[in-house]
């Protein structure tokens, strides 16, 4: 028997650690752990989410990107409380999305999340003015105690100002441009001060200049009103401007780009970005498709552990350590 093989006790402890829910800190707005959503239609099963893991810190502004069919809308619908996952865990603003009662779900959708959809018509009531549209979620939430009407009016005024749509307060949606409608939709989504604002392709129907102005409005609610914002987008402008872009592939989070502003010794600011791939608790990573294609990697790859990194190379690539008595610095992987 191989003396380096893990003992039963070690395997058991590793399995228990992997099965334990991840600890969620106070600063976490969204935590999804091994999220699965299976759709069945006409007897055929589609695994839209296949063990997705995602943590979003409070106050973050995150873009979700991915090919068509990768599971973005499925995830957003779950986070919006419109759909329920098949397995896994998901919590937003302290609500457990799998265990909510119908009553909690209603309250969650009214108070904890706001949404902005791509279709501008889906966001606004056509027969109400802009100010009335913004007040509506607050009226639905209720609150008849003294001063509720004044508080609502105050919040409407605050949002009209923050989103620079005060001049549109008495217009109806049909009298607004697409970009103006989306800015109003952001105000409606923010009316009840949700912990998280979710948006599905909010700039998808807009030209690039208008889309940039709408994206700026998301930045405003993130920065000035403190909302955590998650935007599903195909728009490279949006994906390239946020601090964190998360890519979904085949129903899992596969990679992330993190950007930060760095200042050099002359005081000049520039944005540095770095790509990361997700490592799940079973040790799986999804290597970027472009890397795999560039290096002709498929089916199986050779893996070596160096002292401070792991090397992945094509299965048929020449072994760099062959004939090197010193082992080239690589050490056998620990069990
Ligand atoms: N209600 C449903 N019934 C059956 N299959 C579904 C349903 N909703 C989504 N799917 C399937 O789940 C997978 C993920 O779909 P989803 O809409 O989440 O992808 P997406 O990344 O949002 O795509 P797009 O960018 O085109 O909107 C797809 O294969 C889709 O066909």
Describe the model.
The chain is α/β, with parallel strands linked by helices and 335 residues long. The protein folds into 2 domains: 58-84 and 97-277, P-loop containing nucleotide triphosphate hydrolases (Rossmann fold), CATH 3.40.50; 289-329, no CATH class. Helix content is 30%, strand content 27%. It has helices at 8-19, 72-79, 102-112, 120-123, 130-141, 148-162, 178-189, 208-223, 236-241, 289-294, and strands spanning 28-41, 44-57, 61-65, 87-92, 95-96, 113-116, 196-200, 228-232, 244-249, 252-263, 269-277, 301-305, 310-314. A 7-stranded mixed β-sheet has the order 6-7-8-3-9-10-11, sandwiched between helices. The protein has a 4-stranded antiparallel β-sheet with strand order 2-1-4-5, with helices on one face. A hairpin with a 2-residue loop joins strand 9 (244-249) and strand 10. It is globular and about 75 Å long. The protein starts with 7 loop residues before the first helix and ends in a 21-residue tail after the last strand. The structure holds adenosine-5'-triphosphate (ATP). Adenosine-5'-triphosphate (ATP) binds next to strand 1, strand 2 and helix 2. Residues 39, 41, 46, 48, 66, 68-74 line the site of adenosine-5'-triphosphate.
